[in-house]
From TrEMBL:
Organism: Roseateles agri
Keywords: DNA-binding, Transcription, Transcription regulation
Pfam families: AsnC_trans_reg, HTH_AsnC-type
Residue span(s) of domain HTH asnC-type: 6-74
Protein name: Lrp/AsnC family transcriptional regulator
Keyword DNA-binding: yes
Matches recorded under InterPro entries: AsnC-type_HTH_dom (IPR000485), Dimeric_a/b-barrel (IPR011008), Tscrpt_reg_AsnC-like (IPR019888), Tscrpt_reg_AsnC/Lrp_C (IPR019887), WH-like_DNA-bd_sf (IPR036388), WH_DNA-bd_sf (IPR036390)
Transmembrane regions: none
Superkingdom classification of source: Bacteria
Length: 147
């Protein structure tokens, strides 16, 4: 049984996904439970690993600036851990997934310009263990359910 199998926990998580900065008092009011209950549920969800952090999402104006690219990355055997560690240091990295198929990893990058994206791809290509990268620049986002 997962830590978020309870309907109240699921509602709490949904509220936090909409606004991670919501106060416990505000969450309690919206859920119709005591603030101390919210605090206890949050502590349990964090301890169980269901909630692993809180984040800030950029508004559409800030998120739409620059250029976004999907980058397939092929690495040498046994180099993955170090490559992932190095990629994690790039602030332009939005997502990184290990994937099946032609590539070992698929990265989503957002850079302020095509010039920065080009430099970023060079930096990624220079990481020890990276064999090749294949990039596709996003021209238009047709469906976005992550907003």
């Amino acid at each position: 049984m997962s830590a978020a199998s309870d309907p109240t926990d699921r509602q709490l998580i949904a509220l936090l996904q909409a606004n991670a900065r919501a106060s416990t008092a505000d969450l309690a009011r919206k859920l119709g439970i005591a603030r101390t209950t919210v605090v206890a549920r949050l502590a349990r969800l964090e301890a169980s690993g269901t909630i692993v952090g809180y984040t800030a999402r950029l508004g559409s104006d800030a998120a739409d600036r620059g250029v976004q690219a999907f980058v397939g990355i092929t690495v040498q055997p046994k180099a993955g851990r170090e490559v992932v560690r190095r990629l994690g240091g790039f602030p332009e990295l939005r997502q990184l997934a290990s994937v099946s198929g032609e590539f070992d990893y698929m990265a989503v990058l957002r850079a302020e310009s095509t010039m920065r994206l080009d430099a970023l791809l060079d930096e990624i290509g220079d990481i020890e263990g990276v064999i090749k990268t294949t990039s596709s620049v996003v021209l238009a986002l047709r469906v976005d359910r992550n907003a």
